[in-house]
Design brief:
The complex is a heterodimer of chains A (215) and B (215). Chain A is of the alpha/beta class and 215 residues long. Chain A contains four helices and 15 strands. In chain B, strands 1, 2, 3, 4, 5, 9, 10, 11 and 12 form a nine-stranded mixed β-sheet that branches. Chain B has a three-stranded antiparallel β-sheet with strand order 6-8-7. The chains are: A alpha/beta (215), B alpha/beta (215).
Chain lengths: 215, 215
């Protein structure tokens, strides 16, 4: 199983039947492929609809129906369209059960940085600040390091997207919950030892008494 | 009142130095023909309020490439490398705003409100220099309302009275911007006879629309 699939499969177990979920661009978009049998989630797209379905076949591409990354998608029966104010009322108003997104950095306080690298990359926050600040559950889904560079820190040093908002971090190495005491490692990938996971994590991991394999 | 005008008339309402809102989300739901006509007109020093600066060759992005904007207020610039380049060279002033905040600022501008209180951005660079208000123990930023001289929006079906219906994900910022400018011009994919749109399906009432121009 490749790294992305390991992460997406694990994230897919996070939802309850009927949850309204917003998925960020990149890796999070793989999550719907692995939603367990019997669980239905409603995908929210911040450019203005719920009920987002899979990509269309090539001859059914409709440029008036794109996701928040501008990529053509479909809608499933039961979908609804709305304007940007309502879309963000859903996000901010406590109506979005979860958001899944990537990170440049995340830390043991649940701070998240994923919208700019000063002097280098300034794409803008788009809807990320609202999603991180508004969703009931904020799941960071990412590779544990960026080509060896440590991303799970004691304190983020890049400008924040949201302060103390992350609920859970899911990587190919394990699952970490953000708690008032710090990052609690609750699940691990048996391909690694706990020491190996700690080695590439700047924040001190608290090892759960109920630690179990993530796969 | 006759609202249907030619493209030449439409463009004549946009003058050097004006603040304009342009609907759309990554070019989906943008009044493309008006944007093209603005480029031909050569109008300059525009302040553009929009969700994003789209792509170099599509939507609002073309007005960035043509150098007609002096300032943009947007949530995202990452899909248009020219925006970043001009910003870094000091030729374009870029104000990045969380997408949900931008939607509410525009909505407030059209709704007679002075601004909105949002928790989004607290503890991030977005909060710098802004008033913080503590309401019932929670911290909010005061984000002021936005208005424009002209709003340029896109409608899928527009009747002679200016009632607008938006197809699929083209709605996004369009209905909000339709309320927030002195002059509102809708580019209609299709112009239909008054009464041809079921009143239940009218998303933006015609009273907000000053002019209709055929795409």
């Amino acid at each position: 199983m490749d790294v992305k699939e390991i992460i997406a499969r694990r994230v897919a177990k996070e939802f309850s039947d009927g949850d309204v979920v917003n998925l960020g661009i990149g890796l999070p978009t793989l999550v719907p492929n692995y939603i367990p049998e019997g669980i239905e989630i409603i995908l929210h797209s911040e450019n203005g609809f719920t009920g987002m379905g899979p990509a269309p076949s090539e001859d059914n591409i409709d440029m008036e129906l794109v996701n928040a990354g501008g990529i053509p998608v479909t809608v499933i029966p039961g979908a609804s369209f709305f304007d940007s104010a309502m879309s963000f009322a859903i996000i901010r108003g406590g109506h979005l059960d979860a958001t899944v997104l990537g990170a440049l950095q995340v830390d043991e306080e649940g701070n998240l940085a994923n919208w700019m690298i000063p002097g280098k990359l300034v794409p803008g926050m788009g809807g990320a600040m609202d999603l991180v600040g508004g969703a009931k559950k904020v799941i960071v889904a990412m590779t544990h390091t960026a080509k060896g560079e440590i991303k799970i820190l004691k304190r983020c040093n890049l400008p924040l997207t949201g302060a103390k908002k992350v609920s859970k971090i899911i990587t190919e190495m394990g699952v970490m919950e953000v708690t008032p005491e710090g990052l609690l490692l609750t699940e691990y990938n048996p391909e690694y030892t706990v020491d190996q996971i700690q080695e590439v994590t700047d924040a001190k991991l608290i090892i759960s008494g109920a630690l179990k394999p993530m796969i | 009142m006759k609202k249907i005008i030619t493209m030449e008339e439409a463009v004549s309402h946009i003058k050097d130095g004006m603040t304009i809102m342009i609907g759309g989300f990554l070019a989906c739901g943008t009044p493309h023909k008006i944007v093209d006509a603005l480029i031909e007109s050569g109008v300059k020093d525009l302040t553009i309020i929009a969700n994003d600066t789209s792509f170099v060759d599509r939507g609002i992005g073309k007005l960035i490439v043509s150098g007609q904007a002096k300032r943009v207020v947007v949530s995202h610039i990452g899909t248009n490398k020219e925006t970043g380049r001009l910003m870094n060279e000091g030729k374009l002033d870029v104000e990045l705003v969380p997408q949900g905040t931008l939607a509410e600022q525009v909505r407030a501008g059209g709704a007679g409100l002075g601004g909105v209180l949002t928790p989004i951005g607290v503890g991030t660079p977005v909060a710098e220099g802004k008033d913080h208000l503590i309401i019932d123990g929670k911290t909010y930023l005061l984000e002021k309302a936005l208005r424009a001289d002209v709003a340029l929006i896109y409608g899928s079906k527009v009747d002679e009275k200016g009632n607008v219906y938006y197809n699929e994900a083209t709605r996004n910022f369009n209905p909000l911007m339709a309320m927030a400018a002195e002059t509102v011009i809708v580019e209609a994919q299709e112009i239909v006879k008054t009464g041809a749109i079921d009143p239940h399906m009218v998303i933006t009432p015609g009273l907000f629309i000053k002019y209709v121009v055929k795409a």
